[in-house]
């Protein structure tokens, strides 16, 4: 399964296009519905999203994520699959198409970190893989039924994350991938106010917000060590902010979660074990990626003492063993994250050599043990 979100206090996950939710007792996952195949979708869509076609593909390539679901409120869900955005108003039992994404969007449409829900609006960041297409931040003011353009980003390849700062309600954006396309900024009146940009150190996926800073890890497979950086809130509006490196990891950092435990703020990041070189990187590059790992640190150390909560290797597939000229794409290994203030954090290794697809709880007491 792929961990999607915590919906009304319960784990929600998917297997291909089928949707499962945790029972009230937390003892099992129950199938509640299935995302439909759009009428205009063809064989290519089924190969990416639907068994048994998808199974034939992933046996060779490894499992790649093809569905995202976000919880909007107690009954409303939003989903992306391939080029289509779906909405459900009955907890995932029935779905309707509400928008389409760029033609060159990846199998899951956008990144899981690319949707943010506020009291009034939903924001979404597009992820075209075609560098000639202008990425947009879309906004819906009616619970995901209709969408308009909130901002355009003509000088970036695609958007990695759209997030709400829980302490100020500002909307933050991260982008990539070439040096000049990397930025971290805030959405202000239809434009992006850049906080920092211009090289791989500003190439982030998901941000982690704390009362005193914003943290991120670098997503750059050809960089030997990927720093985890912290930028003090006092520097958000400075001309030349100077983030502090608080840790380094050996694989690209993707996803983030935060949770408060006994008065301490914890930040978690997960890395990906990537399967190949970066098409936007230097002509000559070395892949530095040795595991899909979850690391965590707390405010008690000012986020300088980091603990490894879990680590995995990528599952080996036939395309990893024999792939002349690299014609067959191969999938990365990820660890998806979700958190609940009462229950702790859930981690979900995906396309890994062990525990693949398992949703594993990390209760709050596990963090208290490291305090």
UniProtKB/TrEMBL annotation:
Gene3D superfamilies per record: YVTN repeat-like/Quinoprotein amine dehydrogenase (2.130.10.10)
SUPFAM superfamilies: Nitrous oxide reductase, N-terminal domain, Oligoxyloglucan reducing end-specific cellobiohydrolase
GO molecular function, one term: hydrolase activity
Any coiled-coil regions, as ranges: none
Origin superkingdom: Archaea
Keyword Hydrolase: yes
Cleaved signal peptide residues: none
UniProt KW keywords: Hydrolase
Protein name: Glycosyl hydrolase BNR repeat-containing protein
């Amino acid at each position: 399964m792929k961990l999607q979100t915590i919906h009304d206090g319960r784990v929600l996950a998917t297997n291909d296009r089928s949707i499962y939710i945790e029972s009230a007792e937390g003892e099992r996952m129950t199938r509640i519905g299935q995302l439909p195949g759009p009428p205009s979708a063809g064989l290519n869509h089924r190969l990416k999203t639907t068994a048994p076609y998808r199974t034939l593909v992933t046996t060779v390539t490894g499992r790649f994520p093809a569905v995202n679901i976000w919880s909007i409120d107690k009954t409303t869900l939003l989903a992306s699959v391939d080029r289509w955005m779906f909405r459900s108003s009955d907890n995932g039992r029935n779905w309707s198409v509400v928008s389409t994404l760029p033609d060159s969007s990846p199998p899951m449409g956008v990144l899981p970190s690319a949707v943010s829900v506020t009291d009034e609006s939903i924001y979404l960041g597009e992820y075209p893989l075609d560098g000639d297409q202008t990425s947009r931040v879309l906004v819906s003011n009616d619970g995901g039924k209709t969408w308009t353009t909130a901002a355009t980003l003509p000088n970036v390849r695609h958007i990695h994350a759209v997030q709400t700062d829980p302490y100020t309600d500002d909307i933050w954006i991260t982008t990539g991938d070439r040096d000049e396309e990397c930025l971290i900024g805030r959405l202000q009146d239809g434009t992006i106010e850049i906080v920092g940009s211009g090289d791989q150190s500003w190439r982030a996926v998901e941000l982690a917000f704390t009362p005193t800073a914003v943290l991120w890890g670098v997503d750059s497979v050809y960089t030997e060590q990927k720093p985890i950086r912290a930028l003090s809130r006092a520097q958000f509006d400075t001309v030349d902010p100077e983030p502090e490196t608080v840790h380094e990891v050996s694989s690209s950092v993707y996803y983030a979660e935060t949770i408060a435990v006994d008065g301490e703020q914890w930040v978690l990041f997960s890395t990906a074990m990537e399967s190949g070189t970066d098409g936007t990187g230097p002509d000559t590059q070395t892949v530095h990626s040795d595991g899909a790992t979850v690391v965590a640190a707390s405010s008690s150390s000012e986020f300088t003492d980091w603990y490894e909560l879990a680590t995995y290797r990528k599952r080996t597939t036939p395309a990893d063993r024999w792939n002349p000229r690299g014609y067959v794409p191969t999938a990365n290994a990820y660890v998806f994250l979700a958190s609940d203030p009462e229950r702790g954090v859930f981690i979900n290794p995906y396309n890994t050599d062990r525990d693949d697809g398992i949703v594993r709880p990390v209760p709050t007491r596990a963090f208290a043990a490291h305090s």
